[in-house]
Fold this protein.
Amino acid sequence: MYQFNETINRLNTNAVQTEMLPLIYGRRDLMPFWIADMDIKTPEKVTQAIADRLTHGVFGYTNWKNDNFYTPIRHWFKTRFNTNVLKQDLSYAPSVLFTITEAIRLLTNEGDGVILNTPAYHNFIQLIQGNHRMIVENELFYDGYEYTMDFVQFEYLCQMPQNKVFLLCNPHNPTGKVFSEQEILKIIEICKKYDVYIISDEIHMDFVRRGQHVTLAQFMHEYDHMLVTTCLGKSFNISGIPHAYFITKDKFMSETINTKVMSVYGLAAVNLVALTVIKTAYLECADWLDELNAHIDNNMTIVEDYIADHLSDCLFFQKPDATFLAWIDFAKSGFNEIEVQDALQNVGKIATGIGNTFELSASTHFRFNVACSEEKLLEGLERIQRSFDYLKAQQEERAEI
Ligand SMILES: Cc1ncc(COP(=O)(O)O)c(C=O)c1O
């Protein structure tokens, strides 16, 4: 049994979750539930492997093109996702977002379209716009049970010659949607028909609790124009140890990215601590991740029950199939996002993911990270309740005047 209920103080560790509060929320005294990392310690075996590596004392240039990199990743994909990944299809990369950015830059020109399911991870929006490409929106619809993709519109968008890339996020941040095998096959079929390149960000792949993660890597033989990118940042809470990897059969893509990492960006150095983590975590820590998912599932149930018991007049939330992020809908409260965020930040003193940063239009959601101790989670929920109690009291006061 692993311990996930320790409440961890991350002050004085330069954690973005607290350091960035003044910049994003204008105040420092907020309880952080916004950024997608965990208030949970990485497995002890990983910490020990890092410590062992550090005692060597020499941290020079390091090579990833060997079995210390290939074997653990191939083992993970085989045992977790029943997928054979070939060595020659695997590459190391500095980060997931770096890989996505580079692939988009290689595949498109300025002004071209990148198809994106919305709501979307906010950095996708920023990097597409920052590289002067167009976001082409394919909105996910909540049908009262799950988020679904509009395939008629998707095919229509894929037909347009300026839309050259589909950036898939599976499992999906922020909704927690897990794309089924049927959906994946349909995506591949449509993209192949119109030669739209698929970039599949699978960084949340290890947090699928209902259903099964279907990696695009399983279908590489069906279509050459696909790239899967992921890392251990989320799974083992090591986002401060930057690294990523990608899988593709497209030799032009992998060779160009690999060459550019060095010759255009000068990023020759590989993160040797990350290589140590990949080996230990993927070969020895699967049981830790399974128990962590049980903890997260329990936390999601706590959120669902708390909302049903105390906040059902204002909030709607259904446990997602994946991720440690709760995408909570406040539409039925009748308050707008400015009012809700103002109350969360200034009354509840809580920092949640701000909905409109994930959407291209006004939002009725906030994102709430549940990867923490039960104690912290309950305090967060009480703060949310305090915020909505305040909004309702204000509304009543106004009605009486
Ligand atoms: C969907 C998704 N992709 C990528 C990232 C960031 O990955 P990296 O730090 O490797 O660029 C995140 C982090 O929250 C994410 O949620």
Remarks:
- The pocket of pyridoxal-5'-phosphate is lined by residues 36, 95-97, 121, 169, 173, 201, 203, 231, 233, 239, 244 (CB under 6 Å).
- The CA atoms of residues 220 and 249 lie 7 Å apart.
- The mean pLDDT is 97.
- The radius of gyration is 21 Å.
